[in-house]
Design goal:
With 76 residues, this protein is mainly alpha-helical. It has one domain. Helices cover 71% and strands 0% of the residues. It has 4 helices and no strands.
């Protein structure tokens, strides 16, 4: 059983987290380059938010929204 958990440790520490170790070492040299992964995620989120807002405006312009004040029929 111990070797199973050591295998999981090897997988994560020595294989899957190697790119993060590279970014950690890079931070001492260049902060902007070290945070490349964060910048990519922020750009993806910003694009998704802009897309979502445009879709909301499109549905509002077409009067596709159904804004009922009661969430369920039993609240009427």
């Amino acid at each position: 059983m111990k070797s199973f958990f050591e295998g999981i440790q090897y997988l994560f520490v020595d294989i899957l987290f190697k790119p993060l170790d590279f970014f950690r070492a890079l931070e001492l040299k260049n902060w902007w380059a070290a945070n490349t992964l964060n910048w990519i995620f922020m750009i993806i989120c910003a694009v998704a938010i802009v897309y979502w807002i445009k879709q909301l405006q499109l549905h509002k312009a077409n009067n596709d929204e159904f804004q009922d004040t009661t969430a369920h029929s039993f609240l009427k």
